[in-house]
Design brief:
The structure holds two protein chains of two kinds. By secondary structure, chain A is mainly alpha-helical. Chain A has 24 helices and six strands. Chain A is 50% helix and 3% strand. In chain A, helix 1 crosses helix 2, helix 10 packs across helix 11 and helix 22 packs antiparallel against helix 24. In chain B, helix 11 runs parallel beside helix 12. The chains are: A mainly alpha, B alpha/beta.
Chain lengths: 553, 502
């Protein structure tokens, strides 16, 4: 398993950035710096250890509501706030992904993988407590054991609702969950060669095994708890026989109070024993983390060995070792695997918020500002076809399964919407709170690059510090920004055509120094001098973020 | 003289007068429309197809209800069965009726602007949403996986090389437009989607950066380079098409009356944009619109069998299609636009215990527009002859392979020719005479057998028939038809006779 052998070269800025872009929603420059010199194994271990399993719970975000700023999950069910609390949970999760106060962790990127795998949606589940429990189940077990996770998800109240498991009973089966459990959650519909992995009869047999489950207190006003129940009288107690795809397994029908659990355990054991299950999961992880383009060679040299490892008796479907093996492999760090995925809206939006150091207001103490920023982010993601916790179908977001994979994020409409988002970073029209407009302060950024700002060269001060050059500014603006390097012609284009609008580059020095002088002397020219340099810097950054290169990672 | 004949015959381009409000922009540009109309074999370049995707698998048996089998229908789906007195009766038939929410589609049917195609599916049906939708969109056999869409293949054949070199003089508008944010598999060509997605023509123009300089075209190698080129191409297309789409949108008008925006009928909103773009002269060949929510496993009815989510959905489809057709009629464009619905699959014939229906097999689909020539293709599903499976589950059997609809759309609507249609669909699919008023024989057989005829049913007295060469039709009853053409043989049994009504 050569290509899965560990990558042992100490991380450079480029390889550290690659790891962080893939394992998280995108790094800050400081996070990249912190990983340089570490081995991949050390870096991935820290990304695991840094996971915060006890973040503060979501709060009421509307300042006009009773209990504003307070957690609501510990209170009785409040139907009147069901919709808003559901959104508060979305914002809570997006907020965790976006904050930059703690050390970077891979937990939520992996949680999103599982959420897009074991899909349920806020819209259909429709009880905010169910959504919360489901999301925490995935988050707490994202690095745990796949077998336990499949079993737990199968009984999770949100999933029972989403795929009608609660309506599946002896004599009148509802096959929805039984089908998706096989097609989407475990074995997959077909193998890599396109051969079917199970039959319609297998769907029906699995549905019978899964009869008898339900949940309590859905949307029950004032209720303080809810749980999964199993009712043996609703359970199909006969034996269930599966096809040759599952070695003609017969699962014994049970009729005691634990029948549901026993048969579910048998069912999951059978599904996981199917050789395609481990491959299906590993292939999907590979597409998530490494490259959506899975060739026959990749199937043979990466997916198959990784799946063997995943399903090996020693590993027994533990997830963490598989993620570690993949993210620390030589193959992962190959240059060919950089820039080969189109950024999802999460990677674009959360990634930009993080990269450009836009602070996430404290959810508990500064909840109004928090809500405002997260509202903006959530709405953009929704427009770009990635509504958090609200996939369009049980298959997940289209670009993770549809032909073309991540290319599907990009079409003429989403390009326009992506431009609208990156433009917002430039124009800074969103006031998160007084004194904090979301976006990039390009003028402050350029100013920080200028040594000796107040020592402006002139006829009377020939030893003044020269103006920063266009090249210096561009180099700073694009440092760590792209997964691939820009060509010199592109850099020249950005400077000459976009920033300088075909004026000679030396004009920049005059304009910048004039602005320095105007600022120091607070002259009457300050306003337009400042506008003219700001306009160039904004044009430069705005166009840079519209480059195709910014949309791959 | 039809408008097309006029255009083909005319050398003086007095077209704008003829079109009266339609496509002034297109005409003043010596547009591709006029140019290609003048080229031989391309007289139908102004024909448009609108594909309406009902996402999730529509419950066919509660859409078109077999009046002739109501007792069986009621037994199969007692909790959700529509009461007989609620059903919408159709002119000229006492065998089938529509869901009470479908008044608009009932009107279209009665006007001869809507064809019901019964029991549409494909051999070896798949009940996975994903796979079955893929089969519908790619027109693949159930055991074959294809990576191009059926409509995409047509467009790629018609406009080779796309998207390189597009937009251009001959085709300055998008080949296909999907209203929304994503493009569907049906529009996939071999390299990329043949369609563009737009949500709001105005905002689109503002945001794509029309008029801005373009970056040098250097690309890195490998998969990253492939993606970067792909994105740049999308950017260029967006810019290239933004102005054309906006112009058409501005030039077009909404003449019909659509459901109010607060009705949340997103299908109507999408079709309203489509109609306006058509009216504004956009030369796009295929429009794709969608409405979701048809995966009604549970609670498809609420309070009564005629209310609830499924009724709401059918009401939206019906209102939207009717408003769209009326808009096109008022525009004078109805003769060059045809639409079709499709859905993942039908739903079970029997209801489940949750007032819903699970994934099934065959279901009726609709083709709409003034060009359709028959109100019904195929016969009612036989509810006493269903596919049975474990748990007493029963599914409707297929009568019409969906690819026969595609074959007629390609061959008769887009006039690709028979060989090309077969080629694009990878097989030879016989016509269902969607656009022909003649019911032809498909094979030798008894007159009274539905399978003898292209229309999948016995010809009606007002219809023309043709017995094709080599076919032998046996007839032992007295039948009435409008006209009969016999290239093959009719073998008359005792009492067999054809009465020509003329």
């Amino acid at each position: 398993m050569a290509v899965l052998d560990p990558y042992t070269v100490p991380l450079t800025r480029a390889t550290a950035a690659h790891l962080l872009r893939r394992a998280t929603f995108g790094p800050t420059p400081a996070e990249i710096t912190a990983l340089v010199g570490q081995t991949a194994a050390q870096a991935v271990q820290s990304l695991i250890t840094n996971g915060n399993y006890n973040p503060p719970p979501p709060v009421e975000l509307d300042e006009n509501q009773p209990g504003a700023g307070e957690p609501f999950l510990d209170k009785p069910f409040n139907g009147g706030r069901n919709f808003q609390f559901g959104y508060a949970i979305k914002y809570w999760w997006l907020g965790i992904m976006s904050q930059q106060t703690g050390a970077p962790a891979l937990l939520d990127k992996l949680t999103m993988f599982w959420q897009n795998h074991f899909v349920t949606t806020r819209t259909v589940v429709d009880d905010y407590r169910f959504v919360d429990r489901y999301l925490r189940l995935l988050r707490n077990n994202a690095l745990g054991n796949f077998r336990s996770l499949v079993i737990a998800v199968s009984k999770d109240p949100a999933m029972l609702r989403f795929l009608n498991g609660n309506e599946n009973e002896a004599g009148s089966p509802n096959e929805n969950y039984a089908r998706e459990l096989q097609e989407l959650f475990t074995v997959g519909a077909v193998d890599f060669a396109g051969t079917k992995n199970y039959t319609e009869e297998d769907v029906k047999a699995a549905a019978r095994i899964l009869t008898g489950w339900n949940y309590t207190n859905f949307w029950t006003e004032g209720s303080t708890s809810f749980e999964t129940t199993f009712t043996v009288s609703r359970h199909d107690t006969t034996d269930k026989l599966f096809s040759s795809h599952y070695n003609n397994t017969r699962i014994t029908g049970r009729s005691t109070a634990t029948a549901g659990d026993q048969e579910l355990t048998d069912l999951v054991a059978m599904l996981l024993a199917h050789p395609q299950t481990a491959r299906f999961i590993c292939r999907k992880l590979y597409r998530w983390y490494v490259n959506p383009h899975v060739t026959q060679a990749i199937e043979d040299t990466v997916i198959v060995p990784l799946a063997l490892f995943f399903a090996s008796p020693a590993n027994d479907f533990a997830i963490q070792p598989v993620v570690v093996k993949l993210l620390t492999s030589q193959h992962f760090f190959e240059a060919a695997n950089r820039g080969c995925i189109v950024k999802s809206p999460a990677e674009l939006i959360v990634g930009s918020i993080r990269f450009f150091g836009q602070p996430i207001p404290d959810m508990t103490t500064d909840y109004v500002a928090f809500g405002k920023l997260l509202d903006f982010m959530q709405w953009r993601m929704d427009q770009l076809q990635m509504n958090t916790l609200d996939q369009p179908t049980v298959f997940g977001y289209e670009p993770y399964y549809q032909t073309g994979y991540s290319k599907n994020w990009m079409n003429t409409t989403t390009i326009a919407m992506r431009n609208e988002f990156t433009d917002a970073l430039i124009w800074r029209w969103l006031e998160v709170k007084p004194g904090y407009n979301m976006g990039i302060d390009v003028l402050a950024w350029a100013t920080s690059l200028q040594a000796d700002f107040n020592n402006v060269p002139s006829a009377t001060n020939p030893s003044g510090t020269p103006a920063i050059t266009c090249e210096t500014i561009l180099a700073a603006f694009i440092a760590d920004l792209f997964a691939t390097d820009l060509f010199q012609r592109q850099k020249d284009f950005l400077i000459d055509t976009i920033m300088m609008n075909s004026l000679p580059r030396t004009s920049w020095g005059f304009e910048w120094n004039a602005y320095r002088t105007a600022l120091i002397t607070n002259s009457g020219e300050l306003s337009w001098r400042q506008n003219s340099v700001t306009w160039r810097l904004q044009n430069l950054m705005r166009y840079t973020l519209r480059l195709a290169e910014y949309h791959v990672f | 003289m039809t408008r097309r004949d006029f255009l083909a015959a005319s050398t003086a381009f007095t077209v704008p007068v003829m079109l009266n409000g339609f496509g002034l922009k297109a005409m003043t540009r010596q547009s591709a429309l006029v140019q290609s109309l003048m080229q031989s074999g391309a007289v139908n370049t102004d024909r448009v197809l609108v594909i309406v995707y009902l996402n999730g698998g529509n419950d066919g048996l509660n859409t078109v209800i077999p009046l002739d089998q109501l007792p069986t229908y009621n037994t199969l789906r007692s909790p959700i069965a529509l009461p007989e007195n609620s059903l919408l009766r159709l002119q000229g038939t006492d065998k089938m009726a529509f869901h009470p929410a479908m008044t608009g589609m009932r009107n279209l049917y009665n006007d001869g602007r809507l064809t019901v195609i019964n029991s549409v599916s494909y051999p070896n049906p798949d009940q996975s949403h994903f796979r079955s939708t893929d089969i519908w969109m790619t027109a693949a056999n159930a055991d074959v996986s294809l990576t191009t869409g059926w409509a995409g293949r047509y467009l790629e054949d018609r406009f080779p090389g796309y998207p390189v070199g597009f937009p251009n003089e001959q085709m300055e508008d998008p080949l296909a437009i999907q209203i929304g944010y994503l493009t569907s598999t049906a529009l996939l060509g071999s390299q990329q989607s043949m369609g563009v997605a737009i949500n709001d023509p105005e905002a689109f123009y503002q945001l794509v950066g029309a008029g801005e300089p373009t970056s040098p075209n250097d690309i890195p190698g490998g998969d990253a380079g492939t993606l970067i080129s792909f994105i740049r191409l999308q950017q260029a297309l967006a810019v290239g098409y933004a102005g054309e789409i906006k112009n058409a949108f501005d030039a077009g008008q909404t003449l019909g009356t659509y459901p109010l925006e607060n009705m949340n009928n997103s299908l109507a909103e999408q079709l309203k944009i489509v109609a306006r773009l058509i009216h504004g002269g956009l030369k796009t060949k295929i429009f794709f619109v969608a409405l979701g929510g048809f995966d009604t496993h549970s609670g498809q009815i609420v309070n009564s069998p005629v209310t609830g989510p499924h009724a709401d959905l059918l009401g939206k489809v019906s209102d939207a299609l009717y408003a769209f057709q009326e808009d096109l009629r008022l525009q004078g464009t109805q003769d060059r636009v045809v639409g079709m619905t499709f859905s993942d699959f039908g739903r079970r014939a029997n209801a489940n215990a949750s007032n819903g229906t699970d994934h099934g097999v065959a279901a009726p689909q609709f083709v709409f527009g003034s060009s359709v020539r028959h109100q019904v293709i195929g016969t009612n599903p036989n509810l006493s002859d269903l596919i049975e499976s474990y748990g007493g589950n029963k599914d409707v059997k297929m009568q019409i392979d969906f690819r026969r609809i595609y074959a007629d759309l390609l061959n008769d609507w887009f006039e690709t020719g028979r060989a090309k249609a077969d080629n694009l669909l990878l097989h030879n699919f016989p016509t269902i005479s969607l656009f022909s008023d003649v019911c032809e024989t498909l094979t030798s057989g008894p007159w009274n057998s539905p399978t003898t005829w292209t229309v999948g049913r016995v010809p009606m007295s007002g219809e023309k028939i043709r017995v094709n060469a080599g076919h032998v039709v046996t007839l032992s009853d007295v039948v009435s038809v409008r006209s009969a053409q016999v290239q093959g043989t009719i073998r008359y049994g005792a009492g067999g006779k054809i009465r020509i009504t003329g």
